[in-house]
Amino acid sequence: MESLTATQVLRVTGLRKRYGENEVVAGTSLAIARGECFGLLGPNGAGKTTTLGLIDPDGGSIELMGRPVPAEARAARERVGVVPQHDNIDPDFTVAENLLVYGRYFGIADAAIRRRIPGLLEFAGLAGRAESKIQTLSGGMKRRLTLARALVNDPELVFMDEPTTGLDPQARHLIWERLRSLVAQGKTIVLTTHFMDEAERLCGRLAIMDRGRIIAQGAPRELIQTHIEPQVVEVHGDGAEGWGEREAPRLAARVERVGESVFCYAQDAGPLVADLDRRGGLAYLHRPANLEDVFLKLTGRDLRD
Questions:
Q1: Helix H segments across 47-168?
Q2: With bands split at pLDDT 50, 70 and 90, how would you rate the model's confidence at 15?
Q3: Helix, strand, or coil here: 33?
Q4: pLDDT bracket for residue 39 (50, 70, 90)
Q5: What SS3 class is residue 20?
Q6: Which of 76, 130, 142, 255 could bridge across to 96 with cysteines, CB 3.0–4.6 Å?
């Protein structure tokens, strides 16, 4: 690949990382454009978090904010924010003190950080909580504080590792709205998530990673159109397994059986629905294909540790 262009903030080429006999990143290449929300999806252990946090690869190259990594990692990170998978807020400090101390790591003067704090807390839905102790915050508040902390240095690029895991729907929607506003401001977001609806809502482009390799890449709608039949019928309940063995194969392009459920994928779901309505007694859901269908087709349905 050619060198980083003015429209890109991150480019990794042929990235490799091995821990003992386990190659967790196996030749990954990505280019992320300025001002986009880019999703990196994959099962547990696929190599997502390692790829995003890698500064000492065994092979390949990384250019971050126009600087080679690891040679100029420190300078590059001054323009980067990070929301880690697990909140690591200091419980001994207040909300404001957490932001103040974090800002010092970037060499920002205390006075400048204090001027930013009200706006950051307003953005995170934490206005009026500057002097609150961390122990008094809910899980959603702590997550939003971690987001505010990631923005204390006014970064151009923000890495977010599963930012809404464990949050209730209200908190998730608030963070989604905030992430959209960051992109609207021209910031770049790199997002990992296990919520396919989150990736489909937020990401202009995404990559699916498995066993250390990128196996698909593109816009969410493009991936759905390329990799999966457009219509899905999920059949549940007593008798679903037998119906899936006898009838579904002649009516659907592809059939998957998962426990007592049957997933039927088709170009036209009309014959499937008509057959089910005629029989009665079987519960079913007819819906358009989505990103989760693509993810499960490409990475499989087996559990990952």
A1: 48-53, 73-77, 95-104, 110-123, 139-150
A2: very high
A3: strand
A4: very high
A5: coil
A6: 130
Decide if 279 contacts 208 (C-beta within 8 A): no
User: The pTM is what?
Assistant: 0.90
More confident residue, 49 or 137: 137
Q: How far apart are CA 49 and CA 212, in angstroms?
A: 11
Which residues have C-beta within 8 Å of that of residue 117, sequence separation ≥ 6? 96, 99, 100, 130
70 preceded by a cis bond (ω within 30 of 0): yes
How far apart (Å, rounded) are the C-alpha atoms in residues 209 and 217?
A: 9
Return the DSSP state at 56: S
Closest Cα to residue 163, out of 155, 154, 172? Answer: 172
Residues 6+ apart with CB under 8 A from 271: 251
Classify 62 in phi/psi space as left (phi over 0), alpha (psi -120 to 50) or beta: beta
- Indicate the helix (H) or strand (E) that contains 196: helix 196-202
Q: Both tokens of residue 155?
A: 């970064």
Asked if residue 234 lies in contact with residue 285, where contact means CB atoms within 8 angstroms, the answer is yes
Please name each of the domains of the chain with its CATH number: 1-70+175-227 (3.40.50.300), 80-154 (no CATH), 229-299 (3.30.70)
What is the rounded CA–CA span in Å between residue 66 and residue 129? 37
Is residue 305 over pLDDT 70?
no
Q: List phi, psi (to 5°) of 139.
A: -60, -40
CA atoms of 236 and 281, how far apart (whole Å): 10
Q: Provide the mean pLDDT of the chain.
A: 92
The structure tokens listed for 299 are: 């990475």
Burial of 14 (0-12, 13-18, 19+ CB in 10 A): middle
